[in-house]
Amino acid sequence: MNNLLRRIDRTLVFERLISTFPEPQAEVLTEAISLAVEQVWGDVATKTDVDELKEALHRLAEAQARTDESVRALAKAQARTERRVEELAEAQARTERRVEELAEAQARTERRVEELAEAQARTERRVEELAEAQARTEEAVRALAEAQARLERRVEELAEAQARLERRVEELAEAQRRTEEEFRQYREASEARFARIEAALNWLAEAHRRAEEEFQRYREASEARFARIEAALDRLAEAQARTEEEFRRYREASEARFARIEAALDRLAEAQARTEERVTRLEEAVARLAEAQARTERKVDRLARQVGGLSETIGGDLEDIAYIVLHKVLGRELGWKVGELKRVWQKWDGQLREVNIFGEAHDPQRPSQRIWIVGEAKHNLTMREVERFARTVEMARRNLEGEIFPVCFCYRARPEVQERIRELGFRLVFSYGELV
Questions:
Q1: How much is the pTM?
Q2: What is the fold of 318-430?
Q3: Over the range 37-75, which residues count as b (16 or more CB within 10 Å of their CB) and which as e?
Q4: pLDDT at 6 exceeding the cut of 50
């Protein structure tokens, strides 16, 4: 009966304690109370035991209070930990956004590198084109040297014929009076031909001088734009210097040889004054000389075409200079804002037409007016080129809406060419920046 009562009391005590204390503490308290009850039931409990029991219960209560304080501290620490985790999550999100921005910047950098690589490839192609143009120039110089050698051989043959002719001079003394008139006519014709030769040579010398000046100006204007290919330009300049030196020596040699030809012709004229009986042979010699003169004129024409080819080679550079000068001159003289100028092909009146200088300009005083710049760029502007350009301007006026501003750009133009440009109502800009 007593054991059953102790078990019932133990259960009731545990139920009461577990509602206030955690289960382990409730079990310990229940065990302590049971021991105390057993001692009371056995009549062996003393006052000291009861005091000790009270003391044990007090210590248990203090331990429970400390446990509760620790639990509250842990709860606060858990809250701080959760807030720190949220801050770390936000920082991680910001880091991910920054990584995405860096990835986009890296992609832009890679695209810029690709653009720079393409620009470098274009520069290398331009250097190759310049090298090919130099090779063509050197080939033309070699052809001129070969033509000069053939001309020298022909002059030597003429000198030998003249020597043979002089040996027969005395035989022709009596016939001179009858042939003076014929020789005078021949001499006038020869002088006219040699005048044409001298004029052609002077034109070639002037063309070469202009080519040298144009190349010098082009090189100075292009230094800023081609700084990355200075080594290639240096090699090209050295080759051009060699070409100029060879051409100078060729010109000096040609002048000396033509002087000898003129001296030989003078001797021929003196001998002809004393000739009549051998008029037939003299006429044959004159015919051969005329044939040689014709060949010389053909060679001079070929030389002129070759020099023209050299000018065409650097024609693209002339247009680059024209674009720069026109921007400055039209802005300074007319107050216009000039857009991009370039060489284009336009389909006007059903046919393709090449325009050396083409672009738009804006006049602040006439903001609603659309202005088209249509231009022609040449080293030495000729009348034929002006007339051809006039036809191009007429086609532009028929096919473009707005005002047409026709302009010619050149290094040199004869007075009659300038007068024709004014008659047509066009403007003329020289390479040194003068607007006519």
A1: 0.32
A2: Trna Endonuclease; Chain: A, domain 1 (3.40.1350)
A3: bbeeeeeebeeeeeeebeeeeeebeeeeeeeeeeeeeee
A4: no
